[in-house]
Design a protein that fits this description.
- With about 230 residues, the protein is mainly α.
- The chain has one domain (about 1-45, about 50-230).
- The chain contains twelve helices and no strands.
- The longest helix has 26 residues, at about 205-230.
- The radius of gyration is 19 Å and the shape is globular.
- The two termini are about 25 Å apart.
Length: about 230
Amino acid sequence: MTKKDSIFKDLGSYFRSHPSTTLGWIWVSFIPLLGSLLLSVRYSWIEQVSLTSGWDHLLLILILALVVGLALLPTTLTALASGFFWGWAVFPHLVVAYLLANILGYSLGKFLHADFRTILYARHPNLKLEIEKRIDQPAGLVFFVRISPLIPFAISNFLFASLGIPLSKIIRYGLPGMLPRTILAFASGRAAQSFLAARSSFQDPEHWIAFAILLGGSIWGIVHFWNKKRN
């Protein structure tokens, strides 16, 4: 218990001495929630968006990348809205946008110096070997963090940046992990009769079952990853 308290104390000291990093973590934790509330009452303007040219499609990709990469909206709600308003024709747009959002979100984490390993290693050198040997081959960690319905995309980007996992590996292993949630949300949006109905569909029993399966799989995968690397 003492070790855990000292680690949290170190992190608190780090965040106090890095205000921009602290603001970054606060942003990725709360702004997506505010964005969700705003979209719930101001979604009608999206209905006016039409995709009539190649430039429109390119612009949509860039906007989606910025919205997700800057943590203005959660990825699940973004996928649901995309499915409802534009249909399966824009699903590839969403995948490309997620790739760009990975780069943007991870780069922001690096720019804000989200990596707090240095202070942990300085005070707790025994942690260095334990952590480094686990993130040397991060495929399982990245995949199962991305598949988790409880770990937001924006927060996971900062988490990966803080652990120093290479961006190429985050993209390689993270995209497959995002696809189950993305497809489920996109399909829900596509099948709904209204945007508000699409949002409320997440309360349906089948969605809770899917949520439980994804959550259980992510917990099992992360625990398995940690124990395997420890051995």
